[in-house]
TrEMBL record:
GO terms for biological process: DNA recombination. This is Uncharacterized protein. It comes from the Bacteria.
Length: 200
């Protein structure tokens, strides 16, 4: 738990639609879209909400989510990757077996698709996932979300979960939007922006 161990960098995300729901309703949404509840062992990528103190606390029934005006929880993201060379070896093995069993000299497209699906499922079930835990602080008073890690995959998972659970669209502010939010004098902002490259 990075936040509890000391200094930690957070990335700020924003949303425009106000989140006008109670703590009880938020907790119910976190349960509904919890990692355990929506996990599918046949998917290469799984993600969902878990308590802030996860894995010490695994259930939202036992977790505190409200701290003053903030809501805290964690997103668990699991990714399984199947080695392409190993996949190809298994596919060729299954092709030969099916051709022998069915007395076929050549497999149809439907046969190949069937084998691909079965081999993929089998390999995913036996593959250990790479797990990422992303700590989340929700500041509904300022329409802001702070997360402890950020890349394109984490952003996509976070955006999808917040859309499903709370029907809000999250985005990352541009440099200009950050300045607008933090600078009191718009004239200072205008002068600064005029001096910056046009690509910002």
């Amino acid at each position: 738990m990075g936040l509890l161990k000391g200094s930690l960098t957070f990335f700020r995300l924003s949303y425009q639609k106000d989140l006008n729901i109670s703590i009880t309703e938020i907790t119910e949404k976190l349960k509904e879209y919890s990692f355990e509840n929506i996990y599918d062992e046949l998917k290469p990528v799984n993600y969902g909400f878990v308590p802030f103190l996860y894995p010490a606390i695994e259930s939202f029934d036992e977790a505190e989510v409200a701290f003053n005006e903030y809501i805290t929880f964690t997103i668990r993201l699991d990714e399984k990757k199947v080695n392409s060379n190993f996949f190809n070896i298994e596919m060729e093995k299954k092709k030969r077996e099916l051709m022998l069993q069915s007395n076929k000299e050549k497999l149809s497209k439907s046969d190949i698709d069937f084998l691909k699906n079965n081999v993929t499922k089998s390999l995913l079930q036996s593959t250990t996932p790479s797990t990422t835990l992303i700590e989340v602080i929700l500041d509904s008073n300022n329409n802001s979300i702070f997360i402890s890690k950020l890349n394109s995959k984490i952003f996509d998972a976070t955006a999808h979960l917040f859309k499903l659970a709370f029907d809000i669209n999250i985005y990352r502010e541009t440099f200009a939007e950050i300045l607008k939010r933090n600078l009191d004098e718009l004239s200072v902002l205008d002068n600064l922006l005029n001096s910056l490259p046009a690509t910002i």
